[in-house]
Amino acid sequence: MADQDCISARISSNCPPETQRLLTAAWAHDAATVRKLIDEPGKASCQDPQTGETPLHAAIRACGPPSEDDTPEDLEAARKTVYELFLWGAIWNDVDDHNETPGCVAHRLKRPELYGLCVDAGTRAELLFGVLDGYEELGSEGEYEDEEVEVEMENGDAAVGEDGDEAPQLVSMEENGQNGAAEGMEAAEEEKLDAPTFQPPIPEDPDVNSEIYLRSKLTYTDGKLVDNTGNGVMMAWETEIMRQSVDALLPGKEPGKRVLNIGFGMGIIDTMFADTKPSKHHIIEAHPEVLDHISSPESKFGTSWESAAPEPGAFKIYQGKWQEVCLQLLEEGEIYDAIYFDTFGEDYSQLRKFFTEFIPGLLDSDGIFGFFNGLGADRQICYDVYTKVSEMHLADAGLDVEWKNIDVDMKALAEAGKGEWEGVKRRYWTLDTYRLPICTFLG
Ligand SMILES: C[S@@+](CC[C@H](N)C(=O)[O-])C[C@H]1O[C@@H](n2cnc3c(N)ncnc32)[C@H](O)[C@@H]1O
């Protein structure tokens, strides 16, 4: 076992005795003692004040990587302990001092069964969060300061304990791989605490918010579109994903299809759609500077493109937010064979709103819908949780989804600030497999 994963490195000397007992029992996979020690809400997610170790981290980490010494009994004891902790409201996405969630530890240590329990718990928590309509609040720090309830919902947990141990950083998910962290309690509340609490790693950057993004200054440079704070809005490395998305949405690429694309960005996918010679090609874009770029003389999608349409209005840039433009499209009775959705600065609630409220009215009964699947893409467990969550919500909306795995060449994407990420604040993609969604109506 790597030094960093040893019990002595994980349970610090200044860990309060009660927390220490619980972490030790979890480490020993002593599910009965764990159950006995969790005698009030929130205890299942206590954290070592120095390492951020939670009982879930401890129970998973104690397994180490697979070895010849593993016995089925050991594995069963570990599984039972993790299960017990989730039963008592343990939080699936607390991070420790190495910025790892329990699921990240299970993934790194190649423990698929425990990883699966974490994914299931994350899925349950996020589904519950969705029922409570909480996605909107996930994004920005500070919003949480007066909203203990939001923190509770994020946790998928019943209550926040009085001793404040439940003030961890939480990994949250947004569109385009944007990832936010919920801060804990206010300083005033922390003063109430007599025990030291874990201070999670500072998030790499604050969240992107749609309103701020739509007012931001943008720069088109070779191979990327970035906002004025250095967020990558669109990058050329995604070209292969766009190409495969077009292949999936327009099988055979027959001419004469009716296409709707939401979010122009660098125009990569629209150029590919245009090459298939659609009979209708509508684009919705909200950012004024992207719209200026579209109408510039060097753009392929200016007025001459619009006037080259087979009939008036068939090739059209709709200026504004899709949330408003789509209402107009519905009213006008527009129907499409292929719809693609790829915006920026919006969280999952908006994607869900789009496919729940608009796809049924805008997509032909034999049509295909796709979206850029960057949800939680800076962490494997978040990506896996959101694959499940979106699959369930798509089914609720009457859609079946087939996921096509695409290898992502990570050579130039492996290190923050380097290669493709040069000049981009945040490495929003970290995974070597992209799951491309191909959605059709059920039945
Ligand atoms: C990631 S880029 C799209 C990239 C595009 N798929 C391509 O191939 O270049 C996202 C685009 O969505 C636009 N956008 C963001 N929010 C929007 C909204 N609510 N309505 C319409 N467009 C939006 C952004 O301005 C940006 O141009």
Structure description:
The protein is α/β, with parallel strands linked by helices. The chain folds into 2 domains: 201 residues, Serine Threonine Protein Phosphatase 5, Tetratricopeptide repeat, CATH 1.25.40; 231 residues, Vaccinia Virus protein VP39 (Rossmann fold, 3-Layer(aba) Sandwich). It contains 18 helices and 12 strands. It is elongated. About 12% of the residues have low confidence. The structure holds S-adenosylmethionine.
Quick summary:
The chain has 18 helices and twelve strands. With 443 residues, the chain is of the alpha/beta class.
Shape: elongated
Largest sheet: spatial strand order: 8-7-6-9-10
Bound molecules: S-adenosylmethionine
The ordered string of helix (H) and strand (E) elements is: HHHHHHHHHEEHHEEEHEHEHHEHEHEHEE
According to DSSP, the number of beta strands is 12
Major pleated sheet: 5 strands, parallel
Query: Which CATH top level class of the largest domain fits?
Result: Alpha Beta
Content of β-strand: 15-25%
Average of per-residue pLDDT values: 87
Distance between the termini: 50 Å
* Rg, nearest Å: 24 Å
Fraction of helical residues: 25-40%
Kindly name the structural category: alpha/beta
The CATH topology of the largest domain corresponds to: Rossmann fold
Poorly predicted runs of 5 or more residues? 135-168, 174-192
Helices and strands, with pairings:
Elements: H1 7-10, H2 17-27, H3 31-37, H4 55-61, H5 72-87, H6 102-108, H7 112-131, H8 135-138, H9 148-155, E1 170-173, E2 179-182, H10 187-191, H11 210-215, E3 218-221, E4 224-227, E5 232-235, H12 239-249, E6 258-262, H13 268-275, E7 280-285, H14 288-295, H15 303-307, E8 315-319, H16 322-331, E9 336-341, H17 348-362, E10 363-371, H18 380-396, E11 399-407, E12 433-441
Parallel strand pairs: 6-7, 6-9, 7-8, 9-10
Antiparallel strand pairs: 1-2, 3-4, 4-5, 11-12
Helix pairs in contact: 2-3, 2-4, 3-5, 4-5, 4-6, 5-7, 6-7, 7-18, 12-13, 16-17
